[in-house]
Design a protein that fits this description.
This protein is α+β, with helices and mostly antiparallel strands. It has 2 helices and 5 strands.
Length: about 110
């Protein structure tokens, strides 16, 4: 709410009389303020989440119980440079790209 009031004050200020225009400096400050808000609300959390996901993928090892982005649950059998082999049932082995592993539900050491 306070941000909206600041935005309105910077954008409009006092109502312009005849021949008066809104200050270009106020417009620039408003634009910069909006860019900063977008950065902290949208971009920064997304970058943080991507960094945490990349860190999780580097820690992936055989024996970890994982969930893929498609919702398939299984146990990691083998980790290669770009591929992960996951056992979903007794005789079922599926290969996924590392990026499609959404989360590690149980690390291999927790058993």
């Amino acid at each position: 709410m306070a941000l909206a009031m600041v935005h309105a004050w910077l954008a409009f200020g006092a109502p312009p009389g005849e021949g008066q225009q809104v200050s270009p400096l106020a417009q620039i400050v408003t634009l910069l303020l909006l860019m900063v808000v977008f950065w902290f609300v949208l971009i920064r959390p997304q970058q943080k989440k991507a960094k945490e996901h990349a860190k999780m993928l580097t820690q992936l090892k055989a024996g970890d119980r994982v969930v893929t982005s498609a919702g398939i649950v299984g146990t990691v059998i083998q980790v290669k440079e770009k591929l992960v082999t996951v056992r979903t049932a007794n005789d079922t082995k599926l290969e996924f790209t590392k990026g499609s592993i959404a989360e590690i539900t149980e690390p291999s050491g927790s058993e």
